[in-house]
Amino acid sequence: MRIGAFTWRLGERREIDSLPELASDARRLQRMKKHGLACFMEATQSRESLMVEALQASVRESGMDPLSIDTVIYATGTFDDREDATLMPVVLRRCGLLNARPIGVFLGFCANFTYAFEAIEGLRALGRSRNALLLFSDAYPAGRTRLIRQDSAVGSDGVACCVVSDALERGYDVGPVRHHYDAQATEHLETGDIVSYVRAYSNGVRTSAEAALAAAEVGAAECRWLVTANFNRSVLRNISELCGIGVDRIYDRNIGELGHCSSADQLIALGQLLESDLPAATPVLVTGPADTVWGAAAMRVVRPAPTPTREAR
After folding, report:
1. Quick check: 281 and 224 in contact, CB under 8 A?
2. Does residue 298 contact residue 218 with C-beta atoms inside 8 Å?
3. Are 246 and 294 contacting, i.e. CB atoms less than 8 angstroms apart?
4. Is the domain covering 172-302 a CATH 3.10.310.30 domain?
5. 161: β partners
6. Per-residue pLDDT tens for 147-156?
7. Topology adopted by domain 2-168
8. How far apart are CA 299 and CA 207, in angstroms?
9. Smaller CB count within 10 Å for the chain: N or C?
10. CA 144 to CA 160: how far, in whole Å?
């Protein structure tokens, strides 16, 4: 399964100093900044506008006919059954995606990323989809705190998407997706048993990463980068240790500038890495850790074959 044509549209950058919860807690603010948190993105236009802009840009970059797209996997951690159900037909119509059916992924939060890949992986295996779009969108409604559990991240508003198609010449080949689920993890949170929750969380990250690497026949030491959600640097260090990948290979360049936009984080990072000088076939491990489910997939960079020189001909 190949992905590419990454695009994203985000809100306006705000300093975390502007968050009302931190207005009278200088020590907490200082601690968050020490761990790399500095800004978040706040939407100044509608989700519909952001989604349309990102989808249209992704289709243009792919060079594909919009009518050849047969599926749109829509993932969000802020699902509203009325708003989202009426929003998708409008977005698809405005983008000219008239042959695409929307399928929603809502229950995984940061793991919506790997849930979405698993969903399209299954559809492709059944011959039900050839060309698809993955669309990740999240926005925090007024009154809902952007501070995520134990200040591990600051929530942002934004949209990211990519194309899934074997016709792409540039992007990533995605290995088998693997998940670990533990419904009892939330019980630890409800009772305030943080030690047991951290144990369950660590097991989920480790188990899913090991399974994904084994399925793709890639060693942790081979992975040039670890891509995950934009958590603070303390959390990212723990995730890297659990995945067996060195701290110097965590892609953490967005945590201060962009904040945490749920599953869009990983797509943005993958798009940025593709613009770097990573050679073809470079392995990258991507993880989607959430409260009760943890997903992972190993990917390899794909680049167009070099044009033969006159001498080579």
Report:
1. no
2. yes
3. no
4. no
5. 7, 135
6. 998 899 999 9
7. Peroxisomal Thiolase; Chain A, domain 1 (3.40.47)
8. 17
9. C
10. 22
